[in-house]
Amino acid sequence: MIRAVVIDVDDTLCLTEAACFELENEVLACIGREPMSRDVHLSTWGQPLLEAMTLRSPGIDLEAFAAAYPAVLRRYVADGRLDVVAQENLQALDALAAAGRSLMLLTSRTEAEVEHLLAPDHALTGRLAAVYHAGNMRYSKPDARAFDELLAATGLDPRHCLYVGDSPGDAHAANGAGLRFIACMQSGVRRRADFADHHVDAFIDTFPQMVEAVARLENTRS
């Protein structure tokens, strides 16, 4: 049985690349830096934010960026421009839970970047068993050890877990940790060919297709 469904945040649970591109350029403007190009943002999408920013804005003062970032992030969230979880995605989470799956998030975001998702009044509250992020993991994707804390805390066999994400790095981490992997293609940022070097158990075009995909994979195993 697939006992746990572990979910990426960016461009999986919610579509974020375009909004993050605008947000990060606004932060760059706040600290007197030139804007990055969309091509550069896309080519580094999926990397931890501060690591990616050294490539998106070479020579950047990361401390200044990190200091200016939270206020802009909070405004984007408050304005409904970032991290909007669609109702149909929440319904998919409920369907997975109703089928007996434990639901968790695992992301390379920092604790500050997920803080609003953990708020008591957030729609995800009560739907998730745990949230793993850069603040409570020793390693980040694409390192397979990103799943170490989750597997240790839950005692789950990785063969009973599934990860859904949008990037080859997500696939690499899941493959290395022994989890099954579903690639969510909804953002349009990736192509199936991008996953050619990784094992993908299923591709889905939209997040709600997760429900049928997980059931189908479980039936295939049995």
Automatic annotation (TrEMBL):
One of its GO terms (biological process) is DNA repair. GO terms for molecular function: phosphoglycolate phosphatase activity. Gene3D superfamilies: HAD superfamily/HAD-like, Putative phosphatase, domain 2. Keywords: Hydrolase. Pfam families: HAD_2. This is Phosphoglycolate phosphatase-like HAD superfamily hydrolase. It comes from Nonomuraea endophytica.
